């Protein structure tokens, strides 16, 4: 990332944190000292009890010293009378998902700045170390992880399904919990993610199923044949598996699939399939840059079929004023089967997030701000459980996360981590540049007949 973009990123996040301080009264308030009498209980990390730990074991990424007031150029808003839990970020600012990098970081840093100003986590506040740009390159992802592995208690972000899978064995060695920017169905199963990846929202597989079911039952188009365009990894293949499962259940023909290795998208070949082998609808699970090229190229050839995108395929930048593809994406042919409600979602969690960020001067209302903010609520629950269990070591955090209830004020369905069960509830949206995040919500909690009848306990879809 060049110095100009770094400075812009810093200014954006600084403005958010300054606003949070104003909205929360300028700083953390002293809590009244209270004496609580509790029954003596046997406390385990698998089922943390309600007592407050007198002494907490710690190791990597946790200090009794307070968090720095500023990391890089970013204020932490940490209470200087409390210890510090450090988190890391492995993101993408320069690769195919670079448009997600800043919004998700904004969401993460904003959440912890707010959390620190509203009491922290018991005797510890949280600081997010400077983000690493891995450029959506697995080897770079591993390299940057190695550089931070001894300095953080958990990862606030590991962006990308194939990248997170690539470093999973190293996370396992380190007992390193991570929140992904990924909705691979495998994250719901300990046999796949070793109990280390904090799942939130729906999954690509469920969104593929729900996307086809919803299209068949709600759009005034007779969909008999479909195509699939997908990255050939556990992002694209997971979405494609869901689409194909629904197609088999509903009697829809999959006329063709275009699968490609990440970074090897051939727009000519993909557009050629749409033009020479017309279908009633197609289902892309690709990166936003490839999506814009594909839709635009097909439209130039007079082909605009129903398009049901996986969440990472769409960018709100498609429908901002001046975008060359704005009219195309707002034409009524494009939809997103989303893993959770966008920035304008009507939940208490969305409202609280918007209130905290309101007036910060941030133009973006990206869905990735929502992902960053809400995913940290699940990380927070795991950290709080480990503190109550008196073990804030990485092994303790891992054990606590194996059986902890998580909630996000309605932003995602409440669940228990480690339950080996997926949440097949998608949010159906359509591009609309007049609304926050560039999408309009058509159904805020949809599970189609295929998803309702599917055995979600059987493991990942791909």
Write the layout of secondary structure elements.
Elements (H helix, E strand, L loop, with lengths): L2 H21 L33 E2 L3 E2 L6 E2 L2 E2 L7 E9 L6 H20 L6 E5 L3 E2 L4 H11 L5 E6 L1 H6 L1 H7 L3 E4 L8 H4 L10 H15 L6 E7 L4 H15 L2 E8 L6 H10 L4 E5 L2 H13 L5 E5 L15 H4 L4 E5 L9 H10 L9 H22 L2 E2 L1 H8 L3 E2 L8 E2 L9 E6 L7 E8 L2 H5 L9
Parallel strand pairs: 1-15, 5-6, 5-7, 5-8, 8-9, 10-11, 10-12, 12-13, 13-14
Antiparallel strand pairs: 2-5, 3-4, 14-18, 16-17, 18-19
The count of β-strands is 19
Shape: globular
Mean pLDDT: 89
- The CATH class of the largest domain is Alpha Beta
Beta-strand residue percentage: 15-25%
Please give the count of helices. 15
Feature tags:
462 residues, Rossmann fold, 2 domains, 15 helices
Quick recap:
This protein is α/β, with parallel strands linked by helices and 462 residues long. Helix content is 37%, strand content 18%. It has two domains: 45-203 and 344-416, Response regulator (Rossmann fold, 3-Layer(aba) Sandwich); 204-338 and 424-453, 3-Layer(aba) Sandwich (Rossmann fold).
Description:
The chain has 462 residues and is of the alpha/beta class. The chain has two domains: 45-203 and 344-416, Response regulator (Rossmann fold); 204-338 and 424-453, Rossmann fold (3-Layer(aba) Sandwich), CATH 3.40.50.2300. Helices cover 37% and strands 18% of the residues. It is built from 15 helices and 19 strands. It has helices spanning 3-23, 98-117, 138-148, 161-166, 168-174, 190-193, 204-218, 236-250, 267-276, 288-300, 326-329, 348-357, 367-388, 394-401, 449-453, and strands spanning 57-58, 62-63, 70-71, 74-75, 83-91, 124-128, 132-133, 154-159, 178-181, 225-231, 253-260, 281-285, 306-310, 334-338, 391-392, 405-406, 415-416, 426-431, 439-446. Strands 11-10-12-13-14-18-19 form a seven-stranded mixed beta sheet, sandwiched between helices. Strands 2, 5, 6, 7, 8 and 9 form a six-stranded mixed beta sheet that branches. It has a two-stranded parallel ribbon with strand order 1-15. A hairpin with a 7-residue loop joins strand 18 (426-431) and strand 19. Helix 9 crosses helix 10 (288-300). The longest helix is centred in the C-terminal third of the chain and has 22 residues, at 367-388. The two termini are 34 Å apart. Residues 1-7 and 26-53 have low confidence and may be disordered.
